[in-house]
Amino acid sequence: MWRNKILLGTLCLLVLLIAVPSSKAKNVIFSENFESGIPADWAIDNGVWELCLYATSPPFDGGIFAVGTVCNGNYPRYTDSRLISPAFRLDAVTGDEELYLRFWLWFNYQGGDYGYIQISVQDEDTNEWSSWVDIGSTGQWVSNWGLKAIDLTAYAEKMVRIAFYHSDNDDGYQGPGWFIDNIEVIKKVPVFTGDFECGWGDWSTDYCVWEVGITGIPYSGSQCAGTVFGNYPRYTDSRLISPTFRLGIVTGNENPSLRFAHWYNYSSGDHGYVQISVYDEATGIWSDWNNLAGPITGFSAAWTLHPPIDLTAYAGKKVRIAFYHSDNDDGHQGPGWFIDHVRITGFAHFCECDLNQDGRCDMQDWLLFGQDWGRTDCSSSAPCDCDLNHDANCDMLDWLRFGEDWGNTDCLTCQ
Q: Does domain 1-24+191-350 have CATH number 2.60.120.200?
């Protein structure tokens, strides 16, 4: 029993460490983690950016160095500054392949100061570089590191440079600024997962309020996603954004739907929405985010399953979903919104009955499930494989969970 939990945890840790969660075919085009310093082929204009030890910058488990807008204090007034990557060529893409810039960031800006992610493209005929174009931004401040992803597919086969542009609006207010680490540009076909058991996978967040990890009691497994494992910050709205996936064509009586489990505790007028964005195959442009469900307000006493959301109108289309957290800036915060057990019709998922993580729900799992059947004293120090709903008992509620995917042979695993 305990050996299986250690094995699963070890597998997840290994996957996270080598940065390939739920990805089976990732081509890394460009990467930098600054563990050997800021490379000579990077450029800094106006001198605000510098190499920082984590002892003097916000904590993150991606190594011992990051780059930031001044390591040991607030960024200076009146000075804008870019951290500029070397030039690199993006790959061609085919089918459902996508190009993404993914990196970890933490920021604390004051007043109207912000950070912007920018791109410049080289003209193949003149060799001249285009003006910098904004392709993303920070918010005002966050309390945790987050994983941000920016779609670069529209720039396939181009020679490009990426810049992280720190902008001070000269209002007299300064803060710690912006810290960046573990940059990579990748090409891959995104993989949809909805259980967060092995980390972020191909999910991302725009303004870093969302975290993925072990906290409290998740709906299933040992990990979930949530708006900061503590109270969410003021002034910052943020989306938890799914990988791209293509919905199947409607056949017979099977309509595509979205299901998920959530727990929430919102203060005052703060709330959450479930949203969708649709890819236009003709123009290559993603639509604005549209609400599918919500607002999610108030608080829930426990984890609940949200009613299924019908996705029939999007059948055959390439889409992304998002869980949108919105803070109304009234100064009152709460624990926020926690998400787990996301299910899209037609996509493989982690099966709660796959206790030995071999991709199948079979008799080996049944034997593990039965070892502690009937116990009423399951705990973190004496866990039970059969306590699937984390209520310390192995009873019929767990049996119902165990039976949901019984017989499946395509369960997602951490490998």
A: yes
* 196-230 pLDDT, tens digit each: 988 899 999 988 789 888 777 889 888 899 997 77
Specify whether the CB–CB gap between 164 and 222 falls below 8 A. no
> Omega into 295 within 30° of 0, i.e. cis?
yes
The pLDDT confidence band at residue 25, using thresholds 50, 70 and 90, is: low
Q: What is the DSSP letter of 414?
A: -
Domains of the chain, by residue range, sit at: 1-24+191-350, 26-188
Q: How far apart are CA 324 and CA 291, in angstroms?
A: 9
225 Cα distance to chain centroid:
8
Q: CATH number for the 26-188 domain, one of 3.40.50.2000, 2.40.110.10, 2.60.120.200, 3.40.920.10?
A: 2.60.120.200
pLDDT recorded at residue 303: 93
Beta carbons of 388 and 219 less than 8 angstroms apart? no
Using one digit for the tens of pLDDT, what is the confidence trace for 95-126? 889 999 999 998 888 777 888 999 999 999 99
Residue 278 token pair: 């649709």
Q: Of the candidates 233, 107, 235, 111, which has an alpha carbon nearest to the alpha carbon of residue 165?
A: 107
On whether the CB atoms of residues 371 and 282 are closer than 8 A, the answer is no
For the chain, what is the mean pLDDT? Answer: 86
Please tell me if the domain spanning 1-24+191-350 has the same topology as the one spanning 26-188.
yes
Any idea what DSSP says for residue 308? P
Both structure tokens of 118: 């920018």
